[in-house]
């Protein structure tokens, strides 16, 4: 869930998409129970996950704008990771429950209401389609991610529609739990991928697109820099990053030279989406416990 500096339109779009999606998710769960369709139940879970993502990104998009304070000196950006984690756990438990229910039904399928399924599927395509239309003009990272989620939902409903049409003309009731299993496996694949990314940020790993040796090399190539150590690069929320480094300079380096070195290191900010940069300048004969 990304957070660039947003304008009100972006939050407004996400709010509308959230309200649309959440209202519809409730209809889906009821519809799934009434039509006895596991595929609709798993699509409802998929939509619930997206509703939660939308709701949480709407909430945290506002929260992440809050300035840092004495408790959260870095600000509130990391709260979006907490949202991603909560969402992943809900989807994980939900998918496992649906798989537990759907797998036995492949071998002993139950009759489903094909007409009801088709009506819900058409409604699903329309509601998610409307939400995609509302968000497709968005520029923020959040809106792009959400749009992709909603497009996946539209495709999920197209699959439900195809199955319901087939069930209308045949009694291949195993198709419904089979589709449900496929949707659940797809949800779980995404959940594990997102969980891995979230945990890597929580564990302050260097972002995969960043090479720490290259950053060190770039700093060491600056004129006047003898060496660098205690260099750390981590991400606040997957989009805004932080860098801290100790830079060793010649004992005779003047104030002007040090200012010039710092300015050149600060150029890394634009290249790496740095929200925080800490540079500790040390003279060559200065003792530093972090120097190896």
Automatic annotation (TrEMBL):
Lineage top rank: taxon: Bacteria
KW Transmembrane (keyword) present: yes
All residue ranges annotated as the Cation efflux protein cytoplasmic domain in the record: 207-282
GO molecular function, one term: zinc ion transmembrane transporter activity
Gene3D superfamilies associated with the record: Cation efflux protein transmembrane domain, Cation efflux protein, cytoplasmic domain
Mode of membrane association: Multi-pass membrane protein
Record keywords: Ion transport, Membrane, Transmembrane, Transmembrane helix, Transport
Transmembrane stretches, start-end: 16-35, 79-99, 114-133, 145-168, 174-192
Major site of localization recorded for this protein: membrane
Compartments, as annotated in UniProt: Membrane
Cellular component aspect of the GO annotation: plasma membrane
InterPro entries, alphabetized: Cation_efflux, Cation_efflux_CTD, Cation_efflux_CTD_sf, Cation_efflux_TM, Cation_efflux_TMD_sf, CDF/SLC30A
Domain Cation efflux protein transmembrane: 14-200
NCBIfam families reported in the protein's UniProt record: CDF (TIGR01297)
Family according to the record: Belongs to the cation diffusion facilitator (CDF) transporter (TC 2.A.4) family. SLC30A subfamily.
Matching PANTHER family: CATION EFFLUX PROTEIN/ ZINC TRANSPORTER, RE54080P-RELATED
Protein name, entry field: Cobalt transporter
Highest classification ranks of the organism: Bacteria, Bacillati, Bacillota, Bacilli, Bacillales
């Amino acid at each position: 869930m990304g957070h660039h500096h947003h304008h009100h339109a972006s939050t407004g779009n996400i709010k509308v998409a959230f309200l649309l999606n959440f209202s519809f998710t409730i209809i889906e769960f009821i519809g799934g129970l009434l039509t006895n369709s596991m595929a609709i139940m798993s699509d409802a879970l998929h939509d619930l996950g997206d509703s939660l993502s939308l709701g949480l990104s709407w909430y945290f998009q506002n929260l992440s704008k809050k300035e840092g304070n004495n408790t959260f000196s870095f600000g509130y950006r990391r709260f979006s990771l907490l949202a991603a984690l909560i969402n992943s756990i809900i989807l994980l438990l939900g998918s496992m429950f649906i798989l537990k229910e759907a797998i036995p039904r492949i071998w002993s399928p139950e009759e489903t209401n094909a007409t009801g399924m088709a009506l819900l599927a058409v409604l699903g395509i329309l509601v998610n389609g409307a939400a995609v239309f509302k968000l497709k003009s968005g520029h923020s990272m959040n809106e792009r991610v959400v749009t992709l989620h909603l497009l996946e939902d539209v495709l999920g409903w197209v699959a439900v529609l195809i199955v319901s049409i087939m069930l209308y003309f045949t009694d291949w009731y195993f198709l419904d739990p089979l589709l449900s299993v496929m949707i659940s496996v797809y949800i779980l694949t995404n959940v594990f991928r997102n969980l891995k990314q979230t945990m890597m940020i929580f564990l302050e790993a260097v972002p995969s697109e960043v090479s720490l040796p290259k950053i060190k090399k770039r700093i060491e190539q600056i004129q006047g820099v003898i060496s660098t150590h205690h260099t750390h690069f981590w991400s606040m929320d997957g989009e805004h990053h932080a860098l801290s480094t100790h830079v060793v300079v010649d004992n005779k380096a003047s104030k002007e030279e040090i200012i010039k070195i710092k300015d050149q290191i600060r150029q890394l900010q634009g290249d790496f989406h740095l929200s925080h940069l800490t540079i500790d300048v040390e003279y060559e004969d200065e003792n530093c416990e972090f120097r190896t």
